[in-house]
Specification:
It is a single chain. This protein has about 270 residues and is of the alpha/beta class. The protein folds into 2 domains: about 70 residues, no CATH class; about 190 residues, 3-Layer(aba) Sandwich (Rossmann fold), CATH 3.40.50.150. The chain is built from 8 helices and 12 strands. The strands form 3 sheets. The protein has a 7-stranded mixed sheet with strand order 8-7-6-9-10-12-11, sandwiched between helices. Strand 1 and strand 2 form a beta hairpin. The radius of gyration is 18 Å and the shape is globular. Bound molecules: S-adenosylmethionine.
């Protein structure tokens, strides 16, 4: 099947338009971490929580159909557009990037990076199901795909990741909730060379004063002391929720100037 993407027309055989998916009633007003849908699989309806990535990724095309087509997620394309503009303004060629894509899922962000002209990308995710789905859905996007817990890198993993000489970190739709915690973000950030490029997004409320995820404190402090020199921030609609209400995220693109020290973590 051929589908139009933001960047042209490409072959994507995993898009299954015949999947039967039903959303909960909008007036249930589920929080983002409680959202679910039901999917018809082999004649039975199965309830799947949207944050149960093991289950989501195990059904070919479900993630794309649900999150991108139905709930109108815009984040990989949005971050790519902002990132591309800042790279151009900064005089950096995409081909010169050596990128670590943290929380890579089944490769949607990797695909955008390849389309931008990035030649070397390593994906990292905490679940095996994401690596398997990437191999199934987008083989060849990543030079390597590591299933690791970034909060607890063993010596071999650390040595290997340091050896790649990353000068770019991307992390899209993966921070906070039960997903990537502040320590994992900081560890990945510290794998990037000084002056490297950082492009990520985060739910806007995680940057508010009353945030309890720890990200507000971390991101505000690395921006304030120029550990991260921000070039662009943009608040935008990440997707709609199962309540059909908009979910706002903030995209941030900048350059790393130095490592995140332990003292900066909440
Ligand atoms: C919403 S998906 C986003 C996938 C992809 N970046 C995208 O935009 O389509 C979040 C991903 O973060 C991964 N994740 C959650 N916690 C993680 C952790 N501690 N370390 C690495 N990846 C993690 C999940 O397994 C999942 O694949």
């Amino acid at each position: 099947m051929t589908v139009a993407t933001s960047t042209g027309v490409e072959q994507r055989s995993t898009l299954h338009n015949d999947l039967r998916i039903a959303l909960p009633p909008a007036d249930l007003l589920l929080t983002q971490d409680d959202e679910w849908c039901v999917v018809r699989l082999n004649g039975d309806w199965r309830e799947i929580r949207l944050h149960d990535y093991d289950e989501l990724f195990s059904v070919p095309g479900l993630y794309e159909r649900l999150i991108y087509d139905i709930l109108k997620c815009d984040s990989p394309a949005r971050i790519r557009k902002l990132f591309e503009a800042e790279l151009t303004a900064g005089g950096t060629q995409a081909a010169a990037l050596r990128a670590l894509d943290l929380g890579a899922g089944n490769g949607m962000v990797g695909e955008e990076l390849v389309d931008m002209g990035v030649k070397f990308i390593v994906g990292a995710d905490i679940i095996e199901a994401a690596a398997e789905a990437t191999q199934r859905d987008r083989p060849g996007i990543y030079a390597n795909y590591r299933v690791v817990d970034m909060t607890r890198l063993n010596q071999n993993d650390r040595r290997e990741l340091e050896g790649y000489g990353f000068n770019c970190l991307t992390c899209v739709a993966a921070l906070g909730f039960g997903d990537i915690p502040t320590e994992a973000f900081a560890n990945a950030y510290n794998l990037i060379e000084p002056d490297g490029w950082i492009a990520f997004n985060i739910k806007s409320s995680f940057l508010d004063q009353d945030d309890t995820s720890g990200f507000a404190r971390l991101i505000q402090s690395i921006m304030a002391d120029k550990t991260l020199e921000v070039r662009k921030t943009q608040r935008y609609q990440h997707r709609v929720g199962t309540s059909r209400q908009p979910i706002q995220y903030t995209a941030i693109v900048g350059n790393k100037r130095r490592d995140i020290g332990d003292g900066m973590l909440p």
